[in-house]
């Protein structure tokens, strides 16, 4: 059942190394493409990294060497206006994609398509993991795979047969996410401490990488300082001025 599959998701970071075939990857991509896309623009491309040296370099640059080495497929999920530029050139029309709206459209398109791909992979028994670490060296990784102007990597996605699977990490309660008619910030005072206790117990009892912390403490530490500040300049270089 689809809902049960979705509720069972846990990131997989160690695979058995068995490679996916072109047919298998193509099947997953084809299913993923059926995700909704704003105005049918389909502002995404996927770079399938099969070259061993490039995979190793991608692992080092994204700080995920084990994933890149053992995954059955390593994919770079990219926002892409280069293909749309070519389409417009065919009709001698200039293309405008330097607005903040265009950036939102592209990142949303990539996210919807990537999650479709992840769900399709998990339905086949594969494990998956998103790798935001590709943004830590976004320019070097773009050069590694030859991304042209109008294209940038949003995250990596590894697929493969799991060697080990983590327990499902408890998400925020629905009540913390769902607001009816009016946004209600008052309820967090009650809901977040209760969720902290749930996460604290989860981290202490899970089978590996136990630790003693809470969700709110993690988020406070994670967001207290700027991260990846170079991305803004890189996006402008790629044509995304965010006007």
UniProtKB/TrEMBL annotation:
<keyword id="KW-0560">Oxidoreductase</keyword>
<dbReference type="InterPro" id="IPR000415">
    <property type="entry name" value="Nitroreductase-like"/>
</dbReference>
<protein>
    <submittedName>
        <fullName>NADPH-dependent oxidoreductase</fullName>
    </submittedName>
</protein>
<dbReference type="InterPro" id="IPR016446">
    <property type="entry name" value="Flavin_OxRdtase_Frp"/>
</dbReference>
<keyword id="KW-0288">FMN</keyword>
<keyword id="KW-0285">Flavoprotein</keyword>
<dbReference type="Pfam" id="PF00881">
    <property type="entry name" value="Nitroreductase"/>
</dbReference>
<dbReference type="InterPro" id="IPR029479">
    <property type="entry name" value="Nitroreductase"/>
</dbReference>
<keyword id="KW-0521">NADP</keyword>
<feature type="domain" description="Nitroreductase">
    <location>
        <begin position="7"/>
        <end position="160"/>
    </location>
</feature>
<comment type="similarity">
    <text>Belongs to the flavin oxidoreductase frp family.</text>
</comment>
């Amino acid at each position: 059942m689809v809902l049960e599959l979705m509720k069972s998701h846990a990131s997989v970071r160690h695979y058995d190394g068995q490679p996916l075939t072109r047919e298998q990857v193509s099947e997953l991509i084809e299913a993923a493409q059926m995700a909704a896309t704003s105005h049918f623009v389909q502002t995404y491309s996927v770079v399938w990294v099969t070259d061993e040296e490039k995979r190793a370099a991608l692992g080092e640059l994204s700080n995920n060497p084990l994933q890149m080495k053992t995954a059955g497929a390593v994919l770079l999920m990219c926002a892409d206006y280069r293909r749309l530029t070519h389409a417009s050139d065919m009709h001698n029309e200039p293309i405008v994609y330097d607005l903040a709206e265009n950036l939102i459209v592209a990142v949303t398109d990539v996210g919807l398509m990537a999650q479709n791909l992840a769900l399709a992979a998990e339905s086949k028994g594969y494990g998956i993991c998103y790798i935001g670490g590709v943004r830590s060296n976004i320019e070097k990784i773009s050069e590694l795979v030859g991304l042209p102007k109008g294209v940038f990597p949003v995250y990596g996605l590894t697929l493969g047969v799991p060697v080990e699977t983590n327990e499902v990490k408890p998400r925020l309660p629905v009540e913390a996410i769902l607001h009816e008619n009016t946004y209600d910030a008052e309820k967090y005072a009650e809901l977040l401490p209760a969720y902290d206790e749930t996460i604290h117990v989860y981290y202490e009892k899970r089978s590996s990488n136990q630790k003693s912390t809470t969700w709110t403490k993690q988020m406070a530490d994670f967001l207290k300082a700027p991260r990846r500040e170079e991305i803004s300049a890189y996006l402008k270089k790629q044509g995304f001025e965010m006007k």
